[in-house]
Amino acid sequence: MTFGILQISSQIANWLFREHGYRACELEGEPSTLYRPFVNVYFGVAYLRWLSNFEHRTRGEEFVVRAFKGGTKKANHKSTLSYWKRYIAIKESLPSRFYLYCFVPRNVDQLVILGRS
Fold first, then answer.
1. Which residues contact 36 (CB under 8 A, 6 or more apart)?
2. ∠ at Cα 103 (37, 65), nearest 5°?
3. How far is it, in rounded angstroms, from Cα 80 to Cα 74?
4. Domain ranges in the chain?
5. 106 pLDDT higher than 50
6. Are 4 and 35 spatial neighbours (Cβ–Cβ below 8 Å)?
7. Is 100 or 83 the better-scoring residue by pLDDT?
8. 26 has pLDDT over 50
9. Sign of dihedral through CA atoms 49, 51, 57, 61?
């Protein structure tokens, strides 16, 4: 079963917590903790980071996206191809990076971090 916006499983989150040192967020022994947006994104991004260096090799975007959906063994399997194609279609429909840069503050100190005062 997966939870939250990044659809991370409690098994993956617990594994990242125990074996890879991602301990900024507690899971409190309760999988529903992954419904908390910050916790979910934290472990989702940690998993993406781990996938991007799977087997100590720099991995491309396609491998990471497909492995996130189907696991590392299915990263090149036809069962994850439709997920990859959908991802690309959505990515191509987004505004260009140039457009997004217009809204990013030039000074990092100007960024507002949610949950901090």
1. 4
2. 45
3. 7
4. 1-39, 52-92
5. yes
6. yes
7. 83
8. yes
9. negative
